[in-house]
Amino acid sequence: MSLFSVCVFCGARSGKNPAYESTANDMGAAIAANNWRLVYGAGDVGLMGVVARSAQAAGAQTFGVIPEHLMKWEVGKRDLSQFIITENMHERKKVMFMNSDAVVVLPGGAGSLDEFFEVLTWRQLELHARPIILVNTEGYWQPLVDLLTHVVDQGFAGASTLGFVTVVDTVDEAVLRLREAALKPAAV
Questions:
Q1: Least packed by Cβ within 10 Å: which of 1, 68, 83, 141?
Q2: Residues 112-136: pLDDT tens digits?
């Protein structure tokens, strides 16, 4: 039986609020404490580096995927349990997603938004049923939550879209949702 694997999308920068790094640190430690595997973008900078180092320090298996062109920019973290270099960003996202059972989105920028919207779109198209958990650290993702509500209100998506995303305020709440998901049969 394989480990329950949590794909974490987050920033290659740390952001201005120290709470973001604290959340990333807590998420990495929680993944290890629950004997799950971290799947992430293989960078050793920003929140990506924080979540990976925290998970590693607490004994978690780590699975990183990085495209060749970001090896220097994101400082590819080669000391992971598994380290994969892809040709491009599309392949990176696919490999990360295919090797995970759930998705957690921590604060991040355009890349994290791109990853989030891709897995949300795949969910809308019924290509998967994996949980998507948005960790709204100190309200960071509130404008995104408001935008999703606006998209639904304006008729560009069904109300079910909002149900595809679980918004939580803390890592502890995310862990509760992940534990529920880990107990269910593997989602497509």
A1: 1
A2: 999 999 999 999 999 999 999 999 9
- Indicate the SS3 state at residue 72: coil
Residue with tokens 């994996």: 130
Residue 29 lies in a domain: yes
Examine residue 188 and state whether it is found in any structural domain, yes or no: no
Residue 171: exposed, middle, or buried by beta-carbon count in 10 A (0-12, 13-18, 19+)?
buried
Please count the structural domains in the chain: 1
In 3D space, the residue among 181, 182, 187, 186 whose CA is nearest the CA of residue 129 turns out to be 187
Of the chain, the end-to-end C-alpha distance in Å amounts to 16
Q: Is residue 83 one of the residues assigned to a domain? A: yes
What pTM value is reported for the model?
A: 0.94
Six-digit token string for 107: 């604060």
Contact of 21 with 52, CB cutoff 8 Å: no
> In residues, how long is the chain?
188
Residue from 160, 162, 161, 167 nearest 136 by CA = 167
Range of the domain at 43: 5-183
